[in-house]
Structures are given as C-alpha cells and as structure tokens.
Amino acid sequence: MKTFAFSFVGVMAVMIGFSGKPAHAALTITPSAFIGSGGAGTGESLAGDRFRSFAPTAGDENYLGVPNVGTPANRVAQQLNWMNPDNSLQSFDFTFQYDQANDKLVSTIFGGTINWNNWSTSLTTLGKTKGAADLNAFQISITLRDTASNVYLTDLLLDGAVLGGFNGVLGTTQNWLVTGSDMNLTDGFTLTGKLWLQGAFSGSQEFSAVNLNAGWDDRGVPPAGAVPEPASIAVWSLLGLTIGGAGWRRRKRSA
User: Fold this and answer.
1) Nearest CA to 53 among 79, 23, 24?
2) How does 69-107 read in b/e, with b if 16+ C-beta sit within 10 Å?
3) How far is CA 36 from CA 60, 138, 203, 226, 229, in A?
4) pLDDT digit string (tens) for 48-84?
5) pTM of this prediction?
6) CB atoms within 10 A of CB 224
7) Number of alpha carbons in the 13 Å side-chain half-sphere of residue 231
8) What is the pLDDT of residues 229-238, one digit of tens each?
C-alpha cells in the first residue's frame, strides 16, 4: 500500500505541474498582423469597439457591435466631445467588455456607456460563421491620418494580463494581433486602458480611429475545452498506468 500511495501522490503532482494553468499565461503580440490577415479564410472578427473622429462633430464617435461596425445594422453608437479647444494632450480611460453572464458587449469611455445586447445570438443573424465559443484572438488597430496629431494607447490590460502601449504612426494604420494559450475570451473578457489624443484633428470621421476587435484566428490557440491538451492526455494516461500497476501488484501479492 505504501508503494501505491507514493505513486498516486507523485502522479497527481506531475498532473498539476503539466495541466494547471497560471492565472495569465504569456501572450504573444504580433505587429503588422490582424484577425484574418494570414490569408483567405483564416480569421473572423466577432466583437468590435471603435473610437473615431477625435474632434467635436455632429456624428457619433464610439461604435460597438459585430464587425464591420461601419454598417449601421451591426452597431450601437454614442456621441462624444473629445478635444480641448487648445488641442493639448488628453487621456481617456476606457473599457471594452464581453459580459458573458448577460450576453452583451459593453463600451465605456469619457463618462458614457453603450451596450450591444444578445451578442452571441446575433452573430449568425449578421452572417458570422464562428461563435462565442471560438474566441481565441484579439486585435488592436490605430489609424492616424491627421497631420500634427498623436493617437496612442497605454496601460492596456486584457483580463489583467499586461499588453502595454501602442502608438499610431502618421499616415498609416498600425495593427497588432494578440494570441495566447490562456486568454479565456470565451468566458467573457475585459480590456481596459487609456486612449491619448493630442493635436488638431480634422473631424473627418475615418481619418483617425482606434479599433479593438475580438474574434477567431487559426493562428490562435483553440479555446480551453475545445480539444484536450496533449500534456493533460499524457498525464491521465500515466495516472491510469500507475493505478493499474498498483492493482496488479496487489493482486500478485494476494495470489
């Protein structure tokens, strides 16, 4: 019995070491990449939050919904008054959230909040082939086409995991793809950070913008539970062999 007890405890320790996940596994941030950029049919954006037109305008400046959020039927929106008259540097705390319990997307910035309700059930209606259970990638994009202006993000946290800062480059759209083995986006997610604006923005609605998207990409790791992890399979096989071997030894002694 001592041999059996020692082996069982030892295998349990190995199992925890191999299959137990840390609270936030390391994330991979790939510059110049976005959801679906690996080739035809390699990805699908499912949830989007857009901040745009960083000057006071008569239009809406925050879109939330199912990409493409440029399509009115795919979004809810709110109007914001971004800049100071002197165009000095300003920061705006924001939150982009998938609230799984209430099946809704939430965008909060500059004292305003908008919600896209029944998100997972609206995906098929809006032509998406993937669903909430497929979420495994996140995308950050900054477009900066207003001269003498700056747009950048700092202090980004995705479910508490540090993403850091991202800078716009004048005349371009910069993209970053975030993937990782323990993103757990299917259980809901919360992205927080600061949006920084400075300069004389034109007010043209798409000249400068920040887009945040969650979705599926074949470069991402399958969501937890979709496929058993190889390490976990190996550990359970080892556990079965250990228990079986202990039983064989006990039968041999009693024979």
Assistant:
1) 79
2) beeeebbbbbebebbeeeeeeeebebebbbeeeebbbbb
3) 27, 11, 29, 20, 24
4) 999 998 987 778 999 999 999 999 999 999 998 887 7
5) 0.78
6) 16
7) 9
8) 444 444 334 4
